[in-house]
Design a protein that fits this description.
single chain; alpha/beta; Rossmann fold; eight-stranded mixed β-sheet; 17 helices; about 35% helix
């Protein structure tokens, strides 16, 4: 008898034209369209998840715009004078959340309310990136932000001209174009994304050391200090006299793994940070913990993002690669100062440099790379996880990209999605499939994996609420009573 919690697959996020991926027309078939695939709605797996604004009815984005304006009107903007300038600071990852439109709506609402409350019209959008230096230029055009901001938009990259910022730990470097206005607005989101880096510590502050920073400072996360040790650089920059003299307020798109919950705007970034910590641990923590219960599977990548950033149930593939550990636990995770997937901690022989470095998630028996972008060094994934890439054009694109010239050395090519999946089924002996395709409101997977997740969800929910969440919050020094404040907002 069919389980009532299993639904027909949710439509995946559509392929997008980009210099970092193959032409959308080359994506002939999505993995969710393959036989035996179903969808699980996250709200049914975890009934206590909060209601969402988006995805929703046809007017959901209009409602989100009104919610954003209402929240922004509560913020003190009296410091902004009509003849001054304002930089609204965005980050590229926000545009990959739930189709990208919700984040664009927030950025539009910020501009509108600043004009409404202050009379200032010299409002510029600065959108930061990581390694894909032209990515935010594509996003701003796609969502009409270039015209909405009257041409005052700029994609900023970590190799742009820097500006020294004196902090309590010495001179660090931001991007000059971030700080070339009288005031700055920090426009971000609660998506946990790189929890393997920030470990849900000062997540809301992280862009000051990443999206808004020069490569010399930004690289502390990747090359110099390691992810956890590098967290202090973002806080040091934000708390510097220079940045504090320009910081007006923060406006966050509140998202969970199942959709957009609302908007959180405040002059106090650390208050936003505490509320974001609750969302990251309580809501995302259940999905992350549930993924850790998967015993074996084929992971299918089918989303317009670089390999590690493709989504399933709001969780990126890079985090699933580490789902065999508790990424939130600051005590028991082996060598928690290290990032488990980066080759920085693996030798040329492909083995961890130290015994305590955890292996990649052994539940992933094979990866079917149906559709994913270049723009991030990903050879480490194909080296450690057997990988099948669909289509000669996609394989060639990875083979020719400077950051991924070794990716195809460890992967094989299949002509079609059907061929890749049949190869994976035969080679692994499992029919459990999890699809990282950004399906909104749920997750697409095989029927056999759905049965496992449905069975495990109640126990996982109870364990997170009663055992794990109190520990995670205690480790971060966050008052549990803040949860009630979040619910009452």
């Amino acid at each position: 008898m069919e389980n009532k919690m299993m639904h027909p697959p949710i439509m995946p996020i559509a392929p997008r034209p980009s210099q970092y991926g193959i032409e959308p027309a080359l994506v002939k078939r999505r993995v969710a369209e393959m036989p035996g695939m179903v969808s699980l709605k996250l709200k049914e797996l975890f009934p206590d998840l909060p209601d969402v604004i988006y995805p929703g009815p046809e007017d959901a984005l209009e409602k989100l715009y009104e919610v954003a304006k209402e929240e922004l009107r509560k913020v003190d903007m009296s410091m902004i004078q009509p003849d001054q300038s304002v930089n609204v600071l965005a980050s590229h990852h926000g545009f990959t959340l739930f189709g990208g439109q919700p984040y664009a709506i927030l950025l539009k609402a910020i501009r509108d309310v600043i004009i409404e409350k202050t009379g200032c019209r010299n409002i510029r959008l600065r959108a930061g990136v990581g390694m894909r230096f032209r990515e935010t230029e594509e996003y701003m055009k796609r969502y009409g932000l270039d015209t909405y901001y009257e041409g005052k938009v700029k994609g900023i990259a970590p190799v742009d001209e820097g500006i020294p910022i004196e902090t309590e730990v010495g001179t660090l470097y931001g991007l000059k174009s971030v700080y070339d206005a009288d005031w700055i607005i920090h426009a971000h989101h609660t998506d946990v994304r790189e929890v393997h880096f920030h470990r849900q510590i000062d997540k809301a502050v992280k862009p000051f050391g990443m999206s808004y920073a020069r490569i010399e400072t930004r690289s502390t996360y990747h090359q110099n200090l390691g992810p956890r040790a590098a967290n202090f650089t973002a806080r040091a920059i934000f708390e510097s006299e220079f940045v504090q003299s320009k910081f007006a307020f923060a406006a966050f798109l509140n998202v969970g793994p199942h959709g957009v919950i609302g908007v959180d705007a405040d002059n106090d970034l650390y208050a936003v940070n505490d509320r974001a910590t609750f969302i990251g641990c309580q809501i995302y923590g259940k999905i992350m913990t549930l993924f850790g219960e998967i015993d074996e599977c084929i992971a299918a990548l089918d989303f317009p993002c670089p390999v590690p950033y493709v989504f399933s149930a709001g969780v990126i593939y890079a985090n699933f690669v580490g789902a065999n550990t508790d990424l939130y636990d600051m005590e028991k995770t082996p060598l928690p100062a290290y990032t488990w997937y980066t080759e920085a901690f693996y030798g040329k022989n492909g083995k961890p440099l130290l015994d305590g470095i955890p292996p990649l998630n052994p539940a992933i028996k094979m990866c079917v790379h149906n559709y994913s972008w270049t723009g991030y060094p990903s050879a480490f994934f194909s080296e450690h996880i057997p990988t099948v890439v669909v289509g000669a054009e996609q394989a060639k694109m990875f083979d020719m990209e400077p950051m991924n010239i070794k990716y195809m050395d460890h992967a094989v090519v299949a002509k079609t999605t059907e061929g890749a999946m049949n190869f994976a089924y035969n080679a692994t002996g499992t029919d459990k499939v999890i699809i990282f395709d950004g399906a909104m409101g749920g997750l697409n997977c095989s029927r056999s994996l759905a049965e496992l997740l449905i069975a495990k969800a109640p126990e996982v929910s109870e364990r997170v609420e009663k055992e794990l969440m109190p520990k995670w919050f205690r480790q971060r020094g966050v008052d549990m009573s803040v949860l009630n404040k979040l619910k009452n907002r």
